[in-house]
């Protein structure tokens, strides 16, 4: 009788231990809001913004470790391999291409900021001044070329094939009533070509290097609805985790929005 009770006690204790472990694992898996979140960024604006996000998140009990990468490839490699928990450095079309090419199980969970492409000129002050046959330069790489064409369409200068979206090329122009000469040049070279052309679509980083201020000098700018808004990316399995939700909440805070508006002086703005 005593031996039988001993076996039952051992079995009961073992079952209780297993249930306790299972319950503990389930809690830990569902609530990661107390962990330190590693967020990958590239040096410069994204790192500067994430430092502010980090301070805001701390008020909500979330600790963030900012991890800087020197290129645009490794942040997604590290995220895919679980070395970091999220990254903030890329726009959605770039992530889509990486996922397509490398089969990463990575998704966007929130918009962050946009560094808007704009149309600039040293010859005219308004797009209304463009004469028939005027030369407009756009970047010659597929990603930025399509982006520029969408911006020209938004400005009413050209029309593109319906629903072509970010895949647009010069061959997809179906409406060009003033017969503008759309010239493709290397993106970095375009600002130096402004003296020789009528206007050009220029990325913010190249515009600022040339002394052009997006909010002051651009005749038309992308807005927050641009598909090229930057994003927060995570592994798809973690997109609904409490820690990631706190990260999004911190990024979309008034403190971060104010920092972006004041620090970058119109060269970047909140996309949420």
N- and C-termini, Cα separation: 70 Å
| Low-pLDDT ranges | 1-29
What is the chain-wise order of helices and strands?
HEHEHEHEEEEHEEEEHHEEHHE
State the CATH class of the largest domain. Alpha Beta
What name does CATH use for the topology of the largest domain? D-Maltodextrin-Binding Protein, domain 2
Instruction: Please give the domain count.
Output: 2
Q: Specify the overall morphology.
A: elongated
What spatial order of strands do you see in the largest sheet? 2-1-3-13-4
Q: Largest beta sheet, briefly?
A: 5 strands, mixed
Q: Quick one: CATH superfamily of the largest domain?
A: Periplasmic binding protein-like II
Nearest-angstrom radius of gyration? 25 Å
Multimerization state:
single chain
Mean pLDDT: 88
- Specify the structural class: alpha/beta
Please give the number of β-strands.
14
Count of helices?
Answer: 9
